[in-house]
Amino acid sequence: MSFWQIVLVSMPRLLNGLTVTLYMTVFSAAVGLLLGIILCLGRVYGNKVASLLSTGFIELIRGTPMLVQLFILYYGLPSYNIRLTPLLAALIGFSINSAAYQAEYLRGSIQSIGIGQMKAALSIGMKKWQAVRLIILPQALRRVIPAWTNEFIYLLKYTSMAYIIGAPEMMAQAKFVASRNFEFFKVYLLTAAIYLSIVWTISFVFSYFERKLRIPGTVVTER
Amino acid sequence: MAVLQAQGLYKSYGQVKALDDVNIEIEDSELLAVIGPSGSGKTTLLRSIAGFVQLDSGKIFIKSKDITDLPPEKRNVAMFFQNYALWPHMTVFENVAYGLKIRRYDKKAIREKVEWALDFLDIKSLAERKPNQLSGGQQQRVALARAIVVQPDVLLLDEPLSNLDAKIRMRIRFELKALQKKLQIATLYVTHDQEEALSIADRIAVMHNGKVLQIGTPQQVYKEPVNLFVADFIGVNSIVRIKPLDKDIVKVGNLEFQPQQGVLHLVIRAEEARVLPAKEHVTLKEGDLKLEGIIMGKLYLGSKHRYEIKIHGIEEILFINSEEAFKINEQIQIIIPKDSFFVYWQ
Lengths: 223, 346
Prior knowledge:
In chain A, about 80% of the residues lie in helices and about 0% in strands. Chain A is mainly α. In chain B, the strands form 5 sheets. In chain B, strands 6-7-8-3-9-10 form a 6-stranded mixed beta sheet, with helices on both faces. A 5-stranded antiparallel beta sheet of chain B has the order 15-19-16-17-18, with no helix packed on it.
């Protein structure tokens, strides 16, 4: 079969898988963001208990392979009568994994903001959480966009791991198509090309937002 | 009635005593400058009043209310930061308005007050700009507007002029003093620049190693320094150290001193000393000091020269500026008026 024939034959299934891949990526990135902010604020600004819990969770997730986490969720939990579908197990796994990483990116960003910003807010009469919400977060969230772009791209590619527990994402579909027509090289090449085009699109969109949200005068602009 | 009273403040960082029994008061609309070298505790004092430093002991009162244990946001104290610490994601207007917003003023009141503050500091035209689009001097005004708009009981200024170049600094000194008098806010002004403190303060507190060594008007601190450290820190000085050889009287130039414990330190206000040719006849007033010496070196400074002078008899080197031209190796005399030198035994 020529390459174009392969494209024609595999595309429907691959695109089907791509929707699942994108769904998993966007969902985990969004839930990860929300959870990540909470974990990060808990670690940086929380009291002893909150800080300890957040730090413990983050280090636990970052310290173990994602595949182990997926296997525990999918193969391990049934021992306690909790049965997740492959997709749900993958969504939960990717979300908490991303949350831990995003929390750390955000922490780095918060710590790059001068201590004077917080002090100025307190001395003008803001409470600590007001200062975090109105002064620290708006700046930190802008600064973390480049790291987020990375995280989003990683996530998109890591979702291919979900095929191991049987989630019907793009990699699973590719394997299915290839093992039927034995055109492994061409099918996987096509799959790689689709991943690449999505990654480029993501980079482009995120850098647009990065420029759009940038605080005037904070970056030396090109040209 | 003092607006701010700090009583018996102590704070140590490990072995270092940053505040060691500090007592100060600031009257209504008074500007108290706290000066000292770095590490003297002046910034710790300012931060403890702002609420950013937990004291080991001591009490702070504002308008007779004990605020020692209150968090920064409940103190009605406004702080001006050395690096301004403006919020870069907000416009100038928003930067100034936020203190009022969280005090729950209504929109109209906020607009009026912010406009008043911007007008007061002559930066009304910058209201919609972001801080990073402003010059250093403009940022400074915004920071000041942000501090005063909430009408604080006490204004804390942390080295406010240190980020500006020398020429602007001179001009702003006048402005700052005029502003502070117009606002009538009790102000604590921390600086390491003694000249700045002398020119701007109503009273000066000199700190060293966590202790307040002297509090007084600029004139008192300059004319009657209580010890060697204060005398040396204030003004432009030359110090001569003389170790008495025996129990004899110590002769310094035309004056004689009874020996005491330690070494005699003679602090000379170099800016008030006159250098004359050795042969010129001068009539000294009672208590004036006359030293004789020889020019060892000279530097040209434009309007005057800076001389390195070796003093006869005590073989010490002094550095003194003079408008007169002398040659190297020329014999000279130095006349120092009686309130422009100080003698300490240490």
